Structures are given as C-alpha cells and as structure tokens.
Amino acid sequence: VDLYIYDLVKEENVRLGDFRKSIFRRKICSVCGTIKRHAFEVLAKRVNVKVLATGHNMDDILGFMFNSFFSEQWLQLVRLKPVLPPLSPGMTRKIKPLIRTPERESLLYCLYAEVPYRRMDCPFSSGTKTKERLKIIEILSRENPGIRYQALRSFIDLSKILEKNIEKPEIIPCSRCGFPSLDGTCAYCKRIIYIKNVLSRNRTK
Predict the structure, then answer these.
(1) Looking at residue 78, which CATH number applies to its domain?
(2) Model pTM score
(3) What tens digit of pLDDT does each residue of 79-109 get?
(4) Measured distance CA(130)–CA(56) in Å, rounded
(5) φ, ψ dihedrals at 203, nearest 5°
(6) What's the distance, CA 126 to chain centroid?
(7) Is 200 part of any domain?
(8) Beta partners for 84?
(9) Cα 187 from Cα 181, distance rounded (Å)
(10) What is the pLDDT of residues 10-45, one digit of tens each?
(11) Contact 147/137 with Cβ under 8 angstroms?
C-alpha cells in the first residue's frame, strides 16, 4: 500500500499548534478533526480513492458520540455511524471497520502480532472533554464490562432515529476549495483563513 502524506505547512503554511494561540485553544481537537477530514478528501481526490477506511476504534467513537450528545450536535452524531455515504457528489464514502473493537483489544492484537505502533499520546489531548468523558465509561466498565458495547448500540440506534427526523441542511460548494459548505465557505477554510489573519497580525506587532 502506498503512503501519501498531507503536510499542512506545505499546503497552507500553518501548523496545528498555531491554533493554541487563538480563540480555538480550547477546541483544538475540533480543529484537528476538521483539518484531518479535509486532508483525507484532498488526498482521496489526488489518488482517485472512492472509499476511506479510518482506524477509529470503539473508544474513539464513544468519545465523539458523548461529545455530540451532550453538546446537542445531532447532525454530528448521525455522521458517526459505521458507514457514511458521500456528503456530496465526487466525495468519498467513509467506513469505520474498527468501530466495534475496543482500544484495548487493538493494543493487545498489536502486541501479539508485533505490529509497530506509536506509543505517544497527542500533545494537544490533555484535559480534553473526550478524554474526560471516556474516564466515566472506564469507571462504569469496572461494574459492567459490557457497558461500552451497550453505549455504542444505543448511540447507533439513536443516530438512525435522528437521521429520519433531523432536517438536512442545504450543501453548497466552498468558494475557496470546492468542498461542501453551508454558506459558501467550509469549516476548514474558515479556520485556515482565520489563523492566517491571526498570524499576520502577530507578525506586524
């Protein structure tokens, strides 16, 4: 399998760490996710990939689902389902083959099969809401080992109900990159334009 790398510095001349000095400093995971999703679509287009398989495991998805649920981001919760059709024509279909595999089982497999993996945590993940809410699941798991599976099933069932009843927003192409947006500028481009303006102002001080 060929390896393709998306270099944010080469593409946009900004770094993820730049957002720590901005209004997004407490939402760095959200910014990272926005950039990651955009990068996946850019690379998929370049190499003509129609389906994207991500490595999100059960713990990852539960963290995102809890965040979406408690912040009432129902459309985001729907988008966390195992198979997601293209958001607009020309985009990829997304699948999550490890959605029912707990993080610990993935780790045990890597150790058993001697699969190399990175042992470090994300430097921006300390104290994030996702990690804090996963601690709750960890505590509940001590009394009920199956709580992760139960929570995942409940969220997936809820997402099916929401999908049938939630109003879908109108999607229009982003004027900067051509990817889907709600108002003519996608979330990725809004953040890139914003941080470039912040960096530009800081340089002139």
Answers:
(1) 3.40.50.620
(2) 0.84
(3) 999 999 998 888 999 999 999 999 999 999 9
(4) 14
(5) -70, -30
(6) 17
(7) no
(8) 94
(9) 7
(10) 999 999 999 988 998 888 888 999 999 999 999 999
(11) yes
